[in-house]
């Protein structure tokens, strides 16, 4: 009984940390969208309208995933899989760009690596929490 309460609290903390990460990413992409239309797409520099469109799409996708998490928060499959795919796209896009711009000196952004691990940890945590429940 006590373990169910602890897993519930930890799961809620992980879920809202994922919402916080996506909110932070949305704010960052919208800030760049408003201030300066410049972005990178797998090592290719985008300027002007293509960059603005790409930034807007990344921000809107994060907002949609936040809505999915808040709407279907109890069903982890519907919340963590889209978040993992989105953060994976952002991670690999930035890793490709970082490797190109640093001539292979850096492989990826550690912050985005941590952001990518959070939905995976949340998914594994809920699988383990479901297996610990008493019948």
Give a quick precis of the structure:
It is built from 4 helices and 2 strands, in the order H-E-E-H-H-H. With 135 residues, it is mostly helical. Strand 1 and strand 2 (44-47) form a beta hairpin.
How does this model look, in words?
Strand 1 and strand 2 (44-47) form a beta hairpin. The protein has 135 residues and is mainly alpha-helical. It has a two-stranded antiparallel sheet with strand order 1-2. It is elongated and about 55 Å long. It has one domain. The model has no long low-confidence stretch (mean pLDDT 86). The protein is built from four helices and two strands; from the N terminus they run αββααα.
Number of helical regions: 4
Q: Describe the oligomeric state of these chains in a short phrase.
A: single chain
Mean pLDDT: 86
Rg from Cα? 17 Å
Number of strands: 2
> How large a portion of the residues is in β-strands, by DSSP E?
5-15%
Overall outline: elongated
Low-confidence stretches: none
Distance between the termini: 12 Å
- What structural class results from the helix and strand content? mainly alpha
Work out the helicity level. Answer: over 70%
Number of domains: 1
Largest sheet: 2 strands, antiparallel
Along the chain, the helix and strand elements come as HEEHHH
Biggest sheet: strand arrangement: 1-2
Layout of helices and strands, plus pairs?
Elements: H1 2-35, E1 38-41, E2 44-47, H2 49-71, H3 76-101, H4 110-132
Antiparallel strand pairs: 1-2
Helix pairs in contact: 1-2, 1-4, 2-3, 3-4
